[in-house]
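Sequence and fold
=================
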Amino acid sequence: MWIKKVRGWELKESAATPEDVFRNRRRFLAGAAGAIIAPTLLACEKEADADAEVAAADPSAGLYPVPRNDRYKLDRELTPEADATSYNNYYEFGTSKNIVKAAQALPIRPWAVTIDGMVEKPLTLDIDDLLKQMPLEERLYRHRCVEAWSMAVPWSGFPLASLVALAKPTSDAKFLRFESFMMPEVAEGQSEPWYPWPYIEGVTLAEATNDLAFMVTGIYGKPAPKQNGAPLRLALPWKYGFKSAKGIQRITFTDKQPVGLWEAIQGAEYGFYANVNPAFAHPRWSQASERLLGSGERVDTQIYNGYGEFVAGLYPDQNDRRYFY
């Protein structure tokens, strides 16, 4: 005799919502105005509609969430998504932190990424074709801005080392130069003549192939929003945030050390390496502590932003200031 055990999460068929009621749920909500359940259902509808809009705007939406790599852990709570996606430096769209609305003008499809310079064969890839070739994963990283604020976020993307392997650099290549988009017709900040646009940043080949170096395509289990650098940005969690270029369209392998945008503007304050170190103050403020987005709490800054076990070996002298500004 077969006896079926009913699990706690199972429903009887008689308890299931009839198909005609489900398909007419909006009409049901309109007729049930004021009922306790209506606000909750309306919120669910709104969230579903928002997810549909994200999927329509970004063809990669179906790739997320991606598996988490548990090697990378945090010593603090994740920053609330609303704070991490609304407090942004992105000078292409203005000097304010509130650039969310302005950044939406950036078209992220089609989007091509060119890999050139000292490589076996230069190539240009559509961003979605690139994503298909890369091992996507999620990493929990701290992010430390040179302005002494910080956040902790779940980035999605792929190791920069995987892109280096795809590029097959020649033996003469020593650096990677990252170049962001140039679209002054949609990014008003790029019309300002005192900035040497487009945004440029660079790393050594040794830094690029370090385990921590990460190419970001998503955040909080979804495609990255435009204000956070979509569709492709860099994450170097042991360095100050200005090193993490956003909206990347070209990666050039070279034997010459790149000069980043902020280094070109004020080299005495923004250097090539820009590794986090509380012992070396910015010329205009201390780096000894940082403000956590979301809570506003101040915490002590850690050398290499707490990632010394991964990267300290890249830099021969911890007391040499040129590695830390």
In short: Residues 37-57 form the longest helix (21 residues).
